[in-house]
Amino acid sequence: MFLLSSHFIFKLFLFLLHFTHSLTYFLKGCNIDYQEILSADVSLNCADRKLTTVPDDIPQNAGSVQLNDNLLKEINKEDFSRLLKLKILNLKSNQIVYVEDESFFRLVSLKTLIMKNNGLTNLTSDMFKGLSNLTVLDLNNNNIQFIPKSAFHFLISLQTLDLGFNALQQVTDIEPILQLSKLQILQLELISFSTFDTKDLHLNRSSSLKELHISSDKLKRFSITTPIFPFLKTLELSILCHDFTWDIPDKTLLRNITQVYLSGSALSFKGTQKILQSLDSLTHLKLNLLKDWFEKVLSTVCKIPTLRKLDLSDNIIHNLTFKLASCSQLTEIDLSSSVVTDLPKGSIQSMKQLQSLNVSYNKLIKVPYDIRSLTSLEILNMDYNSVFELNCEDFKDTVHLRTLSLKSNRIVSMSRCVLEHLTDLKFLDLGHNQIQYYEDIFEIALHKLEFLDLSYNPIAYYETEEFQALWSLKYMIVGTFFTAQAKQKTFQGSNNLEDVFISHEHEYEPNFRGLKHVETLTIYLYCNDDFKVPPGTNYEDSIHFKSLKTLTVICRGDRQGFPYIIPQIMLEGMEHLEMFKAVNVYNEAPGRGTFYFYPHLKSLTISKTDLTDLDPEMFLAIPKLQSLDLSESNIKSLDFLLQANLNALRYLKLTDNEINVINETVFQFLPSLTYLDLSNNQFSCECSNAGFIQWIKNNKQTQVVNAHQYECFLPVDRQGTLLLDFDVQSCWNDGSFFYFISSTCLVVLTLLTSFIYHFLRWQLAYTFHLFLAFVYDSRRRKKGDPHQFDAFVSYNVHDEDWVYREMLPVLEGEQGWRLCLHHRDFQPGKPIMENITDAIYGSRKTICVISRHYLQSEWCSREIQMASFRLFDEQKDVLILLFLEDIPSRHLSPYYRMRKLVKKRTYLSWPQAAQHPGVFWQNVQRALQTGDALTEETDLLTGPAGP
Question: Model-level pTM?
Answer without folding.
Answer: 0.71
